[in-house]
Amino acid sequence: MDRYLLPEQSAELYVLDVNTGDRRLVYRSSDLLFEAPNWSSDGRWLVVNADGLLFRLPASGGTELEQIDLGGVPPINNDHVLSPDAATVYVSAEDGHIYAVPMAGGHPRRVTNDHGPDFAHYLHGVSPDGTSLAYIGLRRRDDRPPVTNVYVIPVAGGADQQLTDDGFPDDGSEFGPDGRWIYFNSERAASVPGHAQLFRITTDGSTTEQLTGDERVNWFPHPSPDGTRIAYISFPPGTLGHPANVDVIVRMLDRDGVHDLVHLFGGQGTMNVPSWDPTGDSIAYVAYPLGGDTGDED
């Protein structure tokens, strides 16, 4: 579904140094609602989506967005991931499928299998060796909420591997840097609707661990390149899903506990996909302030 900026709203792309807390505004638009920044593997580029298209700009800022040719892929959503060598971008399209597109241009290739019109694939991660994609499979049901589960599929195409099989809403499945774990958010520990927390599951599906358990609603875990930290979006208590235009906190979980990195007005689109720079020192995120306010709140 297309999103648009509200009157007097802007989209602001920031880079945040998680060690010092310093934040830098990279790009701002009062016309285009862009979302979900990725980093290139050399740290030079940031990639975002907007209006069903994909764009890049230098991480240093100071330029306009440059459109990436997707070769005729249907309009995309905010689930896009770069391959470890940044030669390929994998995108989730509005037709429910995941496509592989050469970053240098060329013909796209559909990766996913056809599981019928009621099934959609939402991409969130690529394995460190570049051979597998982690995605959320969503099965729509006529008069009941859809079912979501964690899946893995080879980037070359082939059989899907389903890792979870239950009635709990799951989302945000992303590989850790060792390739052994997939991190995701789920309501499997909730006693009320919503109240997602962070989990991880081994890639063979044999072991699941809960990582957070607090009063807030936690989404989209992004493990750092060295695996010692997890950045994520924390919504207010009682939030259902991951809506846009709410006050959220970008948080980080490490061996010392949970740390607030920045408070901002955002949510959906702020940090849906892998957002760490290759050094593991910085993350990228998008704020959506209203009325001329800055997204750089604290």
From TrEMBL:
Highest taxon of the lineage: Bacteria
Matches recorded under InterPro entries: 6-blade_b-propeller_TolB-like (IPR011042), WD40 (IPR011659)
Pfam families assigned to the protein according to its UniProt record, in alphabetical order: PD40
Gene3D superfamilies referenced in this protein's UniProt entry, alphabetically: TolB, C-terminal domain
Protein family: Belongs to the TolB family.
Protein's name according to its UniProt entry: Biopolymer transporter Tol
Organism the protein comes from: Planotetraspora kaengkrachanensis
